[in-house]
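Format notes (please read before filing issues)

Several people have asked whether sequences and structure tokens are stored in separate files. They are not. Every record keeps both together, in the order shown below: the sequence lines, then the token lines. Line labels are part of the format and must not be stripped during preprocessing.
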Amino acid sequence: MLPHILEFSIKELCEAGSVFEKVKVTKQVYGGSYQIKLNDTYVAFLHKSHLPGANVEAQEEQDPDSKKKPAKLIDELEVGQQIAKVRVKELNYFDGVAQVTMKSQIVNTVAMDYSSLEVGQFVNAQIDSVNEVRKIVNLSLNDFVKGQLRLEHMADFPIKTIPPKFTQTGKAIKVRVFQIDERAVTFTKKESLMKHDVPMYASQKAVKKGDKIIGVAVAQNEHGFIVKSFGEVKGMLNFTDVKEKKGDVKVGSSVKCYVLFNKKGSGLALTLDKKKARAEKVSEADSKTLADWLPTEEEFTQIKEAYSSLSKNNLECVGKTFTWKIVESKANYYVLRSVLDKKAKFAILPKPLASCFGLSLQLDQEDFTFEGFVYQELNKVPIVSFNPILGKLNELIPRQQSDLQAGKPHLGLVESISSTLGLTLQFPNFTSKIAIKDMQHTDNLSIHYEVGMPLIAAFNKTGRLSCKDVVLYNVMLSDQQQQHR
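Then the structure lines:
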């Protein structure tokens, strides 16, 4: 036996899912299949069924004595020919040779198997079949990964029949992974769930009081509606609550609601009333800080390695505005790449900084670009905000502790919120606290302040940082008077 079989290890083999570019055909074997040289280390086998035209039948006259002629391969390769791109679909442990494919559906797929799928992931799928009786559309990402699009996930409102746009077999559609249960995958095409800013939670345990849930009313019982969101997150929306808020909720509706409480063993209690859900949110631990929306140290390292060729272009970009495009979407942040820029850069956009004036970016649009301000740099990676206020009032942002001076307004971002301690304001390279008594609003803080929102503060007469309107008014009035002297 070969050594890698005896050791039962694939360390010496390339990994399934690996993509190789500019490979060469070295030999024709087995009547239409080929041996491919991937690089100086690996040789692979390309079966004739995995040529680009392998599933396309030639247009030719049928033999009347034959029920069906075998499919004729449209694409043929020549020895020495260079292939633009192939992908390893599996490994043959007996001969140590990788099996590759040229089929674009597999080469360009985001998931080679179910284990590589993630809840919330956007994928391009193909309609395989339609079950009108069960009201289900069967989709496939490729030959290996398949799933279902159920009736309640085809529109934001309840419908009784499958829309015609989902009945065209072979049609390609963009969907989002809603739930994964081993090999049972549920996709969604609801417009409200196709937006990038939909809240995502790692598990039911991760959901806290006051958190926003966007989901689907999948059923109802004697108490109310069962609302389900991405992954395993689900809860109960009481009929009384719906009636009080005059909500139009039906099975199949998209629902935006908030968590009243998350009781172990009982699940989530939900409400349509944001103020009701957040009115008693008093624990400092209940408020996710801005730092929680940043990559971990390990993720920062991985991002810098992935975009190492652009690192040198990230120098001296703090305090400047660039045009950006989303290249990766993570649970807490986006990875950006600059466009219309001679020296392309990469950056991080924490999700709380992806909105302004209560409006969120429509990131689900393909090739969407936007203006973003580089607020600071962490681990040598620019941190970007979508809010234009930061760019317009850049001169108010202190870059170091000594820049905080009496008699001047200072612009920062809300780092954290506590009903007992007040706000922590984040400036580039340092933070500063604002006590409850020095805030404009002193109750129901989560209604008036949000993590990541820009906030202007100034020192009051006692030397404490304050965001009260009267303090800011006096500071700005004094500043104007000095300018006119």
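For reference, the curators noted about this record: Residues 318 and 374 are 5 Å apart (CA to CA). The first helix runs from residue 3 to 6.
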